[in-house]
């Protein structure tokens, strides 16, 4: 018999992501959320970078001052595992690339020369020798600034598109394709720069969290007629530290059922239950707890009228509708009752 394979897992399924959440019953203000946590079916945690992430609750265990909740695993966390640093500045300077309308430029060694890393990149997410960029941003919106310097401007002007092009689509991009195929080819527009003369021009945008790659930085000049430009330099600056999404720190967790006044809502299953018994003003409590016979241990107190009052409602005994049906009896006198 051959040896089993290494780490066969034997049918086990391993799921990435958060599987358990531990939540204290008291919030930072000392407010007790025990009742809400005990009946919650999902919980939303507001991360400071990506906002709210919902976790559906499978199991709830009460453990002292906190709850341990087993949740449906979610791979969405506040950052991808690979991300260490996402500040990057890449430059092609000097350069001389003439672009006619709908011409493209790809910053790699095989086409128009690679970009040079001049800032950031402490995490190593740009490979300068090959110019292939593995585009895997953290779950924080990042600021992207694209800059070009133009000479030999002719015509009425046009628009320069700063792009990220997947390596799998680079051939189609270089050969030319309809603009409406950006999405099909996975091409991402970083910025659109209006070009209406010689000199520097730039644009800035926020890039939403995304994952993909490998890809190349590239550019495309869109114009009509005899418009033409020559790129003197191209710069791409990406910075994650300036645009982090902020979340109201006063609301870190939303619990579903999430309501403003839980105590007096339909979600409170014990709403209306008596917490302190109502004592009678008339009837006394008869205590047989230790006699085991017919004489209550508080007989003398009952005779004197000073025994503890019974926990019953006087209204039940004083209302005719209650007492007649049970004790006094009642008579139906309608002449057509039995017809």
Description:
By secondary structure, the chain is mainly beta. The protein folds into 3 domains: 15-76 and 246-264, no CATH class; 88-239, Jelly Rolls, CATH 2.60.120; 274-326, no CATH class. Helix content is 9%, strand content 35%. It has helices at 34-39, 170-175, 299-304, 314-318, 320-328, and strands at residues 18-24, 42-47, 51-63, 66-74, 88-92, 97-99, 104-106, 116-120, 126-127, 132-133, 142-154, 158-166, 188-195, 199-207, 215-222, 228-239, 253-256. Strands 5, 6, 8, 11, 14 and 16 form a 6-stranded antiparallel beta sheet that branches. It has a 5-stranded antiparallel beta sheet with strand order 1-4-3-2-17. Strand 3 and strand 4 (66-74) form a beta hairpin. It is elongated and about 115 Å long.
List the helices and strands and how they pair.
Layout (H helix, E strand, L loop, with lengths): L17 E7 L9 H6 L2 E6 L3 E13 L2 E9 L13 E5 L4 E3 L4 E3 L9 E5 L5 E2 L4 E2 L8 E13 L3 E9 L3 H6 L12 E8 L3 E9 L7 E8 L5 E12 L13 E4 L42 H6 L9 H5 L1 H9 L11
Antiparallel strand pairs: 1-4, 2-3, 2-17, 3-4, 5-8, 5-16, 6-16, 7-15, 9-10, 11-14, 11-16, 12-13, 12-15
CATH-scheme architecture of the largest domain: Sandwich
Task: For the record, give the distance between the C-alpha atoms at the N and C termini, rounded to a whole number.
Answer: 91 Å
What value does the average pLDDT take? 76
- Report the sheet with the most strands, covering strand number, pairing sense and barrel closure: 6 strands, antiparallel
- CATH C-level category of the largest domain: Mainly Beta
Radius of gyration, CA atoms, in whole angstroms: 38 Å
State the helical fraction.
Answer: under 10%
The parts where pLDDT drops under 50 for at least 5 residues are 7-14, 80-84, 242-250
What's the tally of helices? 5
Q: What gross morphology would you assign?
A: elongated
What is the strand content? Answer: 25-35%
Q: What number of domains?
A: 3
**What letter string, H or E per element, gives the SSE order?**
EHEEEEEEEEEEEHEEEEEHHH
The computed structural class is mainly beta
């Amino acid at each position: 018999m051959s040896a089993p394979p290494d780490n066969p897992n034997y049918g086990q399924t391993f799921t990435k992501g958060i599987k358990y959440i531990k939540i204290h019953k008291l919030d930072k203000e000392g407010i007790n959320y025990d009742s809400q946590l005990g009946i919650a079916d999902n919980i939303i945690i507001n991360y400071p970078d990506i906002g709210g992430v919902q976790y559906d609750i499978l199991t709830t265990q009460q453990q002292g001052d906190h709850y341990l909740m087993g949740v449906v695993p979610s791979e969405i966390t506040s950052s991808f595992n690979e991300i260490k640093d996402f500040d990057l500045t890449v430059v092609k300077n000097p350069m001389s690339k003439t672009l006619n309308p709908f011409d493209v430029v790809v910053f790699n060694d095989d086409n128009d020369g690679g970009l040079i890393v001049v800032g950031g990149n402490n995490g190593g997410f740009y490979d300068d020798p090959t110019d292939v960029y593995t585009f895997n941003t953290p779950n924080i919106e990042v600021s992207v600034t694209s800059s070009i310097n133009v000479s030999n401007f002719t015509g009425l002007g046009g628009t320069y598109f700063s792009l990220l092009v997947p390596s799998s689509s680079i051939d189609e991009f270089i050969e030319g394709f309809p603009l409406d195929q950006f999405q099909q080819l996975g091409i991402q527009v970083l910025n659109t720069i209006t070009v209406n003369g010689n000199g520097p021009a730039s644009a800035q945008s926020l890039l939403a969290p995304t994952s993909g790659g490998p890809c190349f930085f590239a550019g495309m000049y869109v114009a009509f007629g005899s418009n033409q430009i020559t790129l003197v330099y191209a710069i791409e600056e990406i910075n994650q530290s300036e645009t982090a999404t902020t979340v109201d720190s006063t609301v870190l967790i939303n619990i579903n059922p999430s309501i403003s006044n839980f105590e007096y809502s339909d979600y409170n299953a014990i709403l209306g239950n008596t917490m302190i018994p109502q004592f009678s003003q008339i009837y006394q409590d008869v205590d047989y707890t230790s006699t085991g016979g017919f004489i209550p241990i508080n007989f003398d107190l009952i005779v004197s009228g000073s025994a503890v009052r019974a926990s019953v409602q006087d209204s039940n005994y004083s209302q005719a509708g209650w007492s007649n049906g049970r004790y006094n009896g009642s008579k139906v006198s309608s002449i057509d009752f039995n017809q």
